[in-house]
Amino acid sequence: MGIEDFGGGQGPHADVLVVTTNDVPGFRVEQVIGEVFGLTVRSRHLGSQIGAGLKSMIGGELKGLTKTLVQTRNQAMERLVEQARARGANAVLMFRFDVSEAADVGTEVCAYGTAAVIARI
């Protein structure tokens, strides 16, 4: 199943459809491969910690931390897709993110879901 089967798309995940739903309208699940995940842990940068501390006193978005978290989530998702692709999947169903503190030194981000092979009905 190629990119054209999903109605187009671009980028590094174009050949693996990632959805938060249990199924995909217009497709049937031919094979459930199993759980896949992508994990990354990012340490905190001292400068961003100081900036965040100051910003928290006056309010507003912590743009540096937001940017870091977006990059971290993207990396976790890339690892998820790589694992799904390596196991022969063309889709990840029930996709989720989990974010937690990692031993008070950083942030752990885990992207997870169920790898599957889907086909157009």
Automatic annotation (TrEMBL):
Report any Pfam family annotated for this entry: YbjQ_1
Q: Which InterPro entries match?
A: UPF0145_dom_sf, UPF0145_YbjQ-like
The entry's family comment says:
Belongs to the UPF0145 family.
The protein, known as:
UPF0145 protein SAMN05444921_12771
- State the organism of origin: Streptomyces wuyuanensis
